[in-house]
Specification:
Chain A is an all-alpha fold. Helix content of chain A is 59%, strand content 0%. In chain A, helix 1 crosses helix 3 and helix 2 packs antiparallel against helix 3.
Chain lengths: 121, 121, 121, 121
């Protein structure tokens, strides 16, 4: 999907996305609407639109593949708008959370189990 | 929050995150649980945990700032797990969606308005 | 809104609604799709469609009043479909939960406070 | 679950529940927090807590049956609080919506199909 010069997970930083979105929003005078609370609501709404593609079926219909990608993108846009508004460095937060998860879900205890950490043996 | 050598939106690619999560999940034999449908559900659950910090208040309590960052990270982790499982390049999809949004929300029509594109004048 | 002979919160029992929905679904051969998991997903999707009317605004637009009522109805329909599928008596469960809440939120402690019970003084 | 004199879907009206909740909230001085927007958020949060019991599994664990009933009750309480705040008669709205659904999903077209009405043949 990624074109030669386009964005990609391999070559584009989240900072590039943050700056693009900040411009986009500023040009439209949207930051006045973008309270953290409303951005969190927007994120919920977008995630549900994504979830709907899985309703009554195990996987989205073939013909909805592009629509699913659009919803994934919408979720990401909302999430980055929110982290920006809250002044959070998302990947720094993720690195920290993965470290927490590594402690909560040690390989020998969590292997092959889907329980939450507070229910692991 | 980001340490000198740690991850950050400026310096870490999503591919780095994707690979770290793939390892993390594989070590725990979790891919067998990670159906796209369940990952979409997980994403919904995490977003609601984030949203709860905005319930009955305009912004999260000061004392919950670290917990909010954790929830933002959880949302991102679920989203990237899902894009990986669906084999979608998230930033390529986002670039495409921003281009669509630019057409749907031209500056002169959307400026200072919060309506959905199909309700713009 | 309720007509003289129509349903209303005052005069119609949930059992009446349960039976109407059971008929409705059976006629369409839908019970085969109505797994508890998918009904829970459907409920999430409907709630998000309702929530969207509150996005970027304090209250839904006047012109959306009928649409909001429709979404409220959709949420209720999904909820009752799910309780039926799980064989739960919803109002019995609600009575029990209100009793629990009365213990968790005693008037003298909870009065005028929006904190969760585990954070009350 | 329903005791002889307790509430039940067969014998208790939604009006009884509405009045009980109105008292409960008034005693705690909660109506000042109960904006429609926050009640809609609360509903989303409760639905996600319910949904979590279906994550990574087809049905909730046996041992979680009581917890699932509690979550169903929480969803109902939020929904009724919201309808009350918006001054909507829920069962009247539901009757209307079922009539709409009967038109959108005629038996001969919708039988055995899980598609949304705008995708039916």
């Amino acid at each position: 999907m990624s074109t030669e010069n386009g964005w990609s997970d391999a070559h584009t930083s989240l900072m590039t996305l943050r700056e693009r979105l900040a411009d986009f929003n500023r040009q439209r005078d949207w930051p006045k609407f973008h309270t953290p609370k409303d951005l969190a609501i927007a994120l919920s709404v977008e995630v549900a639109e994504l979830l709907e593609f899985f309703l009554w079926r195990a996987e989205p219909d073939e013909k909805d593949a592009a629509a699913v990608q659009e919803e994934l993108a919408d979720v990401m846009i909302c999430l980055v708008n929110l982290t920006q508004r809250l002044d959070v460095d998302l990947l720094a937060a993720v690195e920290e959370k993965i470290a927490t998860n590594a402690l909560r879900y040690p390989v020998d205890k969590a292997k092959g189990r889907a329980e939450k950490y507070n229910r692991l043996p």
